Amino acid sequence: TAEPLDGAAVPGRREAARYQWAEYLDGVDVTALAPEGDAMWLGLGPARHEGDEEPPGTLVRMDIATGGRVAYSPPDGPPWVHDIAIDAEGTKWLVSYAGVIRFDGEECESYEEDGGQSDDEYYSGGYGVHAVAVDSTGQIWCADGSFNGDRAGQGVMVFNGREWRRLTGPEIEGWRPLFLRRTWVDQILPDAEGGVWLLEARRDGGLLLHYRGGGQWRAYTQFYDDVYPRPNAAAIDKEGR
Fold first, then answer.
1. Homologous superfamily assigned to 2-167
2. For the chain, which residues make up each domain, given as ranges?
3. CB 181 within 8 A of CB 169
4. Which InterPro entries would you find in this protein's record (predicted)?
5. 106-116: per-residue pLDDT in tens?
6. What pTM was estimated for this model as a whole?
7. Residues ≥6 apart with Cβ < 8 Å to 56
8. Which residues contact 140 (CB under 8 A, 6 or more apart)?
9. Span 156-164, mean pLDDT?
10. Among 112, 108, 145, residue whose Cα is nearest residue 129
């Protein structure tokens, strides 16, 4: 959490206003954040070096006001968490190298099986799932690393509560046909109008895609310069920008 100090940021300048920071979980890798009411859910990574203190659990619920924490280490949970999304019922959707995990507060349910092809499975090609989000209709969106050698994953998948569906991407002038496989979507951002933004930051220049359903796509590839050759993250503000 952060409390702004006296003074405001100067418009047009890149440096942020000064903040007074409260420090939590010092020395532990926090790999994902998801707010829920007065709490923040934290996904934790493993200890980086031999002799480092092990994290208190895979998943932590922290009271924002007090800093009080409850750690979870579900026996069937992921080894660490890449991203967290929370649906309207409060169910936590976790993604990691272990695939897609549904956590109801007590038990974990996995949606990945090695090479699984049934409707309720998601096969990431062995490279792990890196992004998850819940859209305005409650569907779960996931994106994996997509390839590990010649083992292609599913790319971008959507789960409607019954089955997984893989998205097919658009053809973009000057780019090879994009089928959202053998790509690496870093972030998924649902908007209030039912659309979804997909950010891929790993190729030169990055790629931002907007999907509106029914195969309607719009691509943005020229939103970078020589100083900042690719984006690292994106966000949508309350006005939808």
1. YVTN repeat-like/Quinoprotein amine dehydrogenase (2.130.10.10)
2. 2-167
3. no
4. WD40/YVTN_repeat-like_dom_sf
5. 888 888 654 44
6. 0.77
7. 25, 28, 44, 69, 71
8. 85, 87, 93, 100, 132, 133, 134, 158, 159
9. 86
10. 145
